Amino acid sequence: MKKLIPFVFLSMLSLMAFNLSAEAPNPIGIYKKPDVFVKEAFKQNPPKPSVLWIKGNVKKQVTQILGHKYPKLRVKYWKQGTRTVWILDEIGKEKPITTGVVINNNRVEKVEVLVFRESRGWEVKYPFFTNQFIQITLKSVSNTHLNKHIDGVTGATLSVNALKVQTRMALYLHNIVNKNVKEKK
Amino acid sequence: MSKKKNKRRRSTSTLYKIHRYLGLFVAISLIWLSLSGVLLNHTDFFQLAKKSVNNPLVLNLYGISKPQLGKVYKVGDKTVLQSGHQVYLDQNVLFEIDTKQFSVTSNKDMIFIGLEDQVKMYTWEAELIDSIPMPSSSSSSEKKLIQDLGSNGSDLFVQVGSAVYKTNAEFTDWTKAEEINQVVWSKEEVLSSPDKQKIIESFSGLFHVQGPTLEQFLLDSHSGRLFGKAGVFFADLIAFLTILLTLIGVFLWLKRSKNKRKKRNKDNDRPTTT
User: Fold this and answer.
1) What domain count does chain B have?
2) pLDDT band at B42 (very low <50, low <70, confident <90, very high)
3) Mind telling me how many Å the CA of A71 is from chain B's nearest CA?
């Protein structure tokens, strides 16, 4: 028994040291600058940005999609032909995730996580997740739910939800700027 | 045989000593852990989440200090000021900043707050309209930092190094400004000590120190987090020592009862003399 005590102490110490060294990689960072994303979406020749004011019926619908009020009174977007690009912020768990969404002909062309500030859930930045959004659209003009199921990522539920609502919001706002939905005041 | 017996007796007495001293060492921490655990189990009953701890020692442990009055700007009849890490428009919290570098200007519709790399636009009712980032330079990797902010009544101007930029009508993009004669640049209020005191009194709520809730304090002291990583490891050590104490206790108890049984059997086996 006496011989066992130092052994048990040593095992505890090594366990503590292992815990200290085995920290998760830091996921926080700017993966792509928003202006670079916009340039890429329009093949290095982006149009001038426009703004859409979040008010009246749009405000109500956006609040319904997000489940809370949008923190800004207007959203900046880029439009060329049938294609629009949106840079949107939405809180995953505690901090905003900045995502770029490209919409073409009312369908998602690309979704990319640009800035991730949360400590967990960064797996949503990988193409295996974001590629699921390609060619997705809203169920109908009045139903702002996505027309296809998006598979979640274990341990990243809140980040997944954030990307889903960002995509829904981008599709809805695309409809607004293309006058597919009548803007009521 | 007796040598072996002596060795066994010595090891048992060492175990008793370890058990005793471990018990003494762990006792105080265990009492605190048990008490805080009981309190945390009844947070609603004791309303721990509604009470705050404002003891200077505790505030120091949490790194909470009294917010200091930073820059003050007057725009129309409104005041934009910095208290600690927060920027306020009158009594409304606008955002948090880490530096003291910000400037403020306005036109008839909006208030503009210039940070190092962006300008935030607010309504006069403190609602965020949008943020206008400084364009990233493609020719150099040098970061453009906003030094000053100005307005000619309608347009917004920023000074970046020696250059002055102007926003377009929609406040979405920047172009180099040619005409800047009409621009009124942001002006920080220069306050004397009594004036500062007056502002602190009129915005007293912004300079009030709020400590952690009693529930948070108990939770952090229960887990050891109150003292950082060292505290957590100390709590782990106490948990480990408690387990060790229990195991040694059980071992000693079993050994003692075995010896007692042996002794009783021996007494029973001994022939009785009449």
Assistant:
1) 2
2) very high
3) 7
Yes or no: say if A145 and A80 are a contact pair by the CB < 8 Å rule: no
The question of ipTM being above 0.85 is answered as no
Nearest-neighbour CA in chain A from B170: distance (Å):
8
Query: Could you tell me the residue range of the domain that residue B74 belongs to?
Result: 69-207
Are residues B233 and B189 part of one domain?
no
Taking residues A81-90, report their average pLDDT.
94
The count of other CB atoms within 10 Å of the CB of residue A152 is 14
Kindly identify which residue of chain B lies nearest to residue A49, measuring between CA atoms: B172
Q: Is residue B38 part of a domain?
A: yes
Residue B77 tokens read as 């009849």
Ramachandran area for residue B63 (φ above 0: left; ψ -120 to 50: alpha; else beta): left
Option in A1, A51, A74 nearest B11 (CB): A1
Based on its alpha-carbon atoms, the radius of gyration of chain B, rounded to whole angstroms, reads 35
Statement to judge: residues B120 and B192 lie in one domain: yes
For residues B239 and B202, state if they share a domain.
no
Distance CA A84, CA A81 (A): 8
Query: Do the Cβ atoms of A106 and A135 come closer than 8 Å?
Result: no
Enumerate the domain spans of chain A.
26-177
Q: With beta carbons under 8 A apart, name residues in chain B contacting A50.
A: 170, 172
Of B169, B186, B207, which one is at a domain's C-terminal end?
B207
Is the CB of residue B170 less than 8 Å away from at least one CB of chain A? yes
Q: Is residue B263 part of a domain?
A: no
pLDDT of A104 reads: 94
What pLDDT digit, counting tens, does each position of B97-113 carry?
A: 887 788 999 988 899 99
B134 and B75 in a common domain: yes
